[in-house]
Amino acid sequence: MLVVLAIFFGVSLAQRPTNTSTCDYYAESLYGANTSTTQFQLIQGIIALAFGGGFNLSNVSSDITGILNPGTFQNLTVDLRPWFNGSIESTNLNDQAVAINWLDDGGTDPLYRFLSGQTVNVTLTNGTNEK
């Protein structure tokens, strides 16, 4: 998973041939095969880290806060969670502003379970707004 994180932040551990797509190359490099399953694993890792950040993960810098955690940018505090957790009316439904909890299935917990290797995939329950 550490290599996926390095890829995500632009650090290259190997030289990718110019005639091979990034997804093809890193699926093969990280998972030993370039299949739809390994490409799905790669994309899940990138997305989970982007949204969940490195919080509580031993192999990831806690400076990588992710979209769903408070962070800082140019010494200003940034917290995008209210846009996702139903705290504010941030969704347009039938031409009306409404508050919807898009994190109703554990928020970042499913992402962290995946990133830490506790689950094979990011697992969400049926009917959740997180899907």
Notable traits:
131 residues, two-stranded antiparallel sheet, 4 strands, alpha+beta, single chain
Largest sheet: spatial strand order:
1-2
Helix content: 25-40%
Name the shape in a single word.
globular
Give the total of domains.
1
Radius of gyration: 17 Å
Low-confidence runs of at least 5 consecutive residues: none
What's the mean pLDDT score? 87
Number of strands: 4
Strand content: 5-15%
Largest sheet: 2 strands, antiparallel
Tally of helical runs: 4
Q: Write the H/E string, N to C.
A: HHHEEEEH
Structural class: alpha+beta
How many angstroms does the end-to-end distance come to?
Answer: 23 Å
Structural account:
The protein has 131 residues and is an alpha+beta fold. It has one domain (2-115). It has four helices and four strands, in the order H-H-H-E-E-E-E-H.
Q: Secondary structure elements and their pairing?
A:
Blueprint: H1 2-8, H2 22-31, H3 36-52, E1 71-73, E2 76-78, E3 91-93, E4 96-98, H4 109-115
Antiparallel strand pairs: 1-2, 3-4
Helix pairs in contact: 2-3, 3-4
